[in-house]
Design a protein that fits this description.
This protein is α+β, with helices and mostly antiparallel strands. It is built from 4 helices and 12 strands, in the order E-E-E-E-E-H-H-E-E-H-H-E-E-E-E-E. The strands form 4 sheets. Strands 3-10-9-8-11 form a 5-stranded mixed sheet, with no helix packed on it. A 3-stranded antiparallel sheet has the order 1-5-12, covered by helices on one side.
């Protein structure tokens, strides 16, 4: 994880679901360098569940509600294909993402925290994780021509100033901030839409910038290009 020192952050967006800009203050915190992988989500969370209903709820699914993982014929248990292990886990809503995070003693990052860690400069906002000019060789965007998610440690040349991978492109990421700018940590607010940041491999240069913002319902939204990373308080 990267340690991000306390600071003020300008939370704004020019593209996507734009909201009135606001100043957000963040306390010193830690944030994952990488997006959570299918392998980690399976090994460190899903495989530890004993309740069948929970397993059904937290199983990654695509937009048609079909499981993304395969079902092992002998045990009947679901698990990711080996080819997915190092790719960012997708097809889970914010409720599942937060459940995973809490199991690891972590939480989801707020929108302000996410922006603070994603910046390409130590003390100022930038358009992209590496600076202000788009470069398709530094990220996994539509212009990069890959057309799918890549491993969470690919493209180190596109890391943010604080070392975060894929905050521009690859998959969009859940934050712990509602559409109206209210942060949460213990539970996803029922019926609320949450801020999404980062863009994905499906998005153009504008939408993988740090100036892009979108929102999705925190419960039940399962998209194959939305994942997450975790944060943790400093005690």
């Amino acid at each position: 994880m990267a340690r991000i020192e306390a600071r003020s952050v300008r939370v704004e967006s020019e593209y996507g679901f734009a909201r009135k800009a606001r100043n957000g203050k963040v306390k010193t915190f830690f944030i994952d360098l990488c997006e959570v992988t299918h392998g980690s989500y399976w090994r460190d969370f899903y495989a530890t569940l004993d309740d069948a209903a929970q397993k059904a709820t937290f199983l990654p699914r695509d937009e048609n509600d079909a499981p993304i993982w395969f079902q092992e014929p002998t045990s009947g248990e679901f698990q990711p294909d080996p080819s997915l292990m190092n790719l960012p886990v997708t097809g889970i809503d914010a409720v599942a993402a937060l459940a995973y995070a809490k199991k690891q003693g972590k939480r989801l990052p707020t929108e302000a925290e996410w922006l603070a860690a994603a910046a390409g400069h130590k003390s100022r906002a930038t358009d992209y994780a590496w600076g202000d000019d788009f470069d398709p060789m530094r990220c996994n965007a539509k212009e990069s021509g890959v057309g799918a998610a890549v491993a969470v440690t690919d493209l180190p040349v596109g890391r943010s100033h604080f070392g975060l991978y894929h905050v521009c492109g690859n998959v969009k990421e859940w934050t712990a901030t509602t559409e109206e700018g209210k942060d949460f940590d213990d539970a996803v607010p029922a019926g609320e839409a949450l801020a999404i940041r980062g863009g994905s491999y499906k998005e153009t240069a504008r939408n993988v910038s740090l100036k892009w913002r979108w929102v999705l319902p925190g419960t039940g939204s399962r998209l194959t290009d939305v994942g997450f990373r975790c944060a943790k308080d400093v005690f």
